[in-house]
Give the backbone structure.
Amino acid sequence: MEKLYQALNKQVANLSVLFTKLHHFHWYVSGPNFYPLHAKFEEFYDEVNELYDAFAERLLMIGGQPVSNLKGYLAITSLKEASGTEKPEEMIGHILDDFKLLATELKEVLFLAQEKNDETTADMLITTLASFEKHIWMLSSTLK
């Protein structure tokens, strides 16, 4: 179970970092697409916030201990923080890259959960993957 705990913990950290990045983009987006991007980034961070809590609580339910501080998140996250100078198209590109990376990693966690016959965690991961894959499609279409 230790590998599954570590993999889920990394996703808790990733979701925390993504939540913060999405807030940053929500606050600092500007330009002609301000309104739709501002609203979309808020939609994303609301979803990520729910997932962040759900992943941490699931980890607790199966006997793990989620990291719960910024230092811990930054030590194990796969994501990079926002730099503070992104243009709207760069913001979209960064979020797209993050969703792609998370989708790849979630598939790895899914394999670990299925290996342990943890179908509840697997179901949570599959649902999250479906949502992220839709975001990937929509963000990719936006950048064409």
